[in-house]
Amino acid sequence: KPAARHGAVAVIGLGRFGGSLARELVKHGVEVIGIDISEEVVSEHAEVLTYVSRGDATDETVLRQIGIEEVDRVVIAVGSDLEASILITSRILKLGNQHIWAKAITEPHAEILHQLGVKNVVSPENDMGRRLAHLIKGHISDFLPIDEDFVLARTTPPVRVADVPLASLGLRTEYGVTIVAFKRDGGGSWDIADRDVTLYANDEILIAGTPRNVETFSELDK
Ligand code: ADP
């Protein structure tokens, strides 16, 4: 049994998502305890992680053996097996660890995890799909959803907002967006967009607002 120390993270399911997350955490200096049902997957990770155990995480004994109650956070990265994901989640909650991040594959799956009491449900495939759709459309070069109804996007200023000070534009009233920061002429560093800043066509901007308002604003004059 590993000494589950303060600050440790348990990653359950070391597939493509869980595996890369676990490796990344190790790079950040975090102690990572991994579990996977497959011997092959376990041996792939044995060298890299702090401790790896082969076992079925739906089994309470297996979870107890790695000291699941004592780790700081648990990531349930088993996604494609819905039953396993639900069982593992409910066992861990029952064992008293509430600090769960769980991966969901579908919308109903996410809903069930929320109902069980998981606060942090992530849907990497879904989120990446939504993000890529914005990038592929072309007017937005980076897109970061903060919440269901709030996003940040990187784009260029519409012609109609260029060459005049931001304060005179009434962007919030007119378009429901805020220009948070700007980068001058394709180079240099980002600056906070104060009210007295004037943007030019070759600048880049970072805007915040609802997904709909941000999309509409990014497509203006383009
Ligand atoms: P990904 O798409 O990220 O690879 P999957 O859900 O397909 O995600 O894979 C999850 C991993 O979880 C696999 O490596 C699989 O062996 C492991 N796994 C599946 N069921 C269990 C279980 N009951 N206990 C522990 N690990 C499991």
TrEMBL record:
InterPro entries: NAD(P)-bd_dom_sf (IPR036291), RCK_C (IPR006037), RCK_C_sf (IPR036721), RCK_N (IPR003148), Trk_Ktr_HKT_K-transport (IPR050721). One of its GO terms (biological process) is potassium ion transport. Residues 138-222 form the RCK C-terminal domain. Residues 6-124 form the RCK N-terminal domain. SUPFAM superfamilies: NAD(P)-binding Rossmann-fold domains, TrkA C-terminal domain-like. It comes from the Bacteria. GO terms for molecular function: monoatomic cation transmembrane transporter activity. This is Trk system potassium uptake protein TrkA.
